[in-house]
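Continuing the batch. This is chain 6 of the set; chains 1 through 5 are on the previous pages. Same settings as before, nothing changed between runs. Recording input and output for traceability.
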Amino acid sequence: MSTLVRLTRATLAALLLPVALLALWWITSADSESYYLPPLSEILSTFDDVWLHTSRLADDVRPSLVRLLAGFGIAVLVGIGAGVLIGSYRPVRAFCEPVLEFLRAIPPPVLVPVLMLFAGIGDSMKVLVVVSGCVWPILLNTVEGVRAVDEVLADTCRCYGIRGPARLWHLVVRAASPQIVAGMRQGLSIGIILMVISEMFAASNGLGFTIIQFQRSFAVTEMWTGILLLGLLGFLLALAMRVFERRVLHWYHGLRQAQRGGSR
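Output for chain 6:
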């Protein structure tokens, strides 16, 4: 079966439940007269006017995506770099573990006022808020992935004299990559939430800012369109992450399929 066919089937399977939920929402809200829960048909018609026929996509959605991707990228670099270092050396892990457990227990939204004091109220603060939440699943998954490197493969590298950057890249990072990607997937979900939260504090644009402005002005239908757009962005980013995972870990998925086929 070709990669395109598998990807198409996976996409259709991922779309099945959201489409079913939207259809259920459409049916159950069709006769709604509530000001706070308008019919889905009204929300969708307003969606077109609010987001597609205005400059809001460029003025609000694009800055949000830039902040999210910047924070996520920094978290990936910091999480993988620190995770490889901590996971590779037991004394470093023993030294850092109490501090890591303390810091990761602090909810990132609590840090928003603190980060505002040091980074101001601009884009830097919002990027740092995303980093503060995204970095932990990436870092911790990287540490566990590095610790779980196969000892046989490590001994083989030692016997063949594979050391330094070659060993780090071809053995450590490659062996830990399934857990690293799992941490990235978790971190991206957290990052979307923190992107919205950070834009609700002292912001002048962004998707979170727009949604809260609609709520404060009692534009309820417009507020629902922002929530729908946020869900759509989350779905598309998750789909992009799945494609990235398939491309980066094609050897891993192929190995698992071969193992399942051999066990039959």
